[in-house]
Amino acid sequence: MTTPLHGLLEQDPVVATAGAGMFAEALREQAVVVSEADWRPPPEESVEALGRVLADRRRAEANTLALQRMTAAGADLVDVRPAREALGLERGTFLHAGPPIEWERASGPLRGALVGAVLLEGLADTSEEAEQQLAAGVHALEPCHHRDAVGPMAGVVSPSMWVYELRDEVHDHTSWCSLNEGLGKVLRYGAYGPGVIERLHWMNTVLGPLLQEAVRARGPVDIKAVIAQMLQMGDEGHNRNRAGSLMLLRELLPTLITADGSSADIAEAVRFSGANEHFFLNLGMPACKLSTMAAEGIPGSTVVTTMARNGTDFGIRTAGTGDRWFTGPANTPEGLFLGSYGPDDANPDIGDSAITETAGIGGFAMAAAPAIVKFVGGDVPFALQATQTMYEITVGEHTAYQVPILEFRGTPTGIDVAAVVRTGILPQINTGMAGRVAGTGQVGAGLVNPPAECFTAALEALAEQPEA
What we know:
Elements: E1 14-18, H1 22-28, E2 33-37, H2 47-55, H3 59-72, E3 76-82, H4 83-86, E4 93-96, H5 108-120, H6 127-135, E5 140-143, E6 149-150, E7 162-168, E8 173-178, H7 194-218, E9 221-222, H8 223-231, H9 242-256, H10 263-275, H11 281-293, E10 304-310, E11 313-318, E12 326-329, E13 334-337, E14 350-351, H12 355-358, H13 373-376, H14 380-390, E15 394-403, E16 409-415, H15 417-423, E17 429-434, E18 442-448, H16 452-464
Parallel strand pairs: 1-2, 4-5, 6-8
Antiparallel strand pairs: 3-7, 3-9, 7-8, 10-11, 10-14, 11-12, 13-18, 15-16, 17-18
């Protein structure tokens, strides 16, 4: 019995290819339409581990549970408090972004931010003295993630800094993040000049207390709902937060303007918040942290619960391996630069803000924010393709975060270590770029991928875990 070709030979063929690009190029030279899959075989050294992980009978159910918990997690802004009170942060202890690191290996922007934090806390009179103290190990350094907090870029949090406090009542979790300073020469990008320290003092003495009074008077703000709305309004939640920042201000303005402060202080707080297009980022990040925290501690799950960078190392953690970090060298972003800065001025990737991609927004939601390419580089087709590609390495779609241009499809959520290694597709991250030299500040914004070593190492660890 023969099978009819249904007119296959009566029209021009479209050929799908995978693997080496030579075949696709040869076909294009013959005017054949080619659909080329972005696929490559897994590293030879990972094949055995990949086989064991894929054969793990717990994996499918565990990953389904991880996705369910991530999408069900709440994220309500409930308070604004000093870090010493909210996080129990002791004098002389400083939190930072990314996996653990010592001063000797710290990047320029992380060193600059730590120097600035020591000055802010009054532990040193000069930057030279602060640097000497840090080099001598006088002060304790600890990742933000180790206290369920997150920090953008250098991510440095000191005891006197005020932090947002967000709650996930569904899973009884709390997360924190510092207040956003704005762009340019700011502490999180490694700047520590007098203007930076003066602004931080104002945030500690004026902005933080006013925001605290506004939040407590208003009651909880549903940050998860704001994220869902901002994705419908052209934001992606990492490097574009215009709509989210304005919606947050709308929620807080009535109680902010009636707070117990001078009219001049309140006016400056409103101006500062309204003029800062990234003001919402520091709320979106802990909201995403709460989402990924909900997936932690699920045996057999290959879902990534943390992606973070300290300017030297890129680290990930997974639902099935607990608090263990898997690291590799941080890559340097490629993108657009401010003023006369160029690629040689950029530090390797830094910050906890990749928690947004870990939770399914940011670079995973670029299709919702095509205008982001004017800030980080690329073009609109790339933004659309980036989101569509991320579906190939995630376990499902977010039920609340949707992409209008993709027929309101949920954002790709739950990065699967096994899928990353199997396909060779690495997560897409949007990011700011800090100057390589301490004290420089922001030099641009761009796109970056994690090093593959993080995922192959995590896969090996997952493969070594026995089934229950």
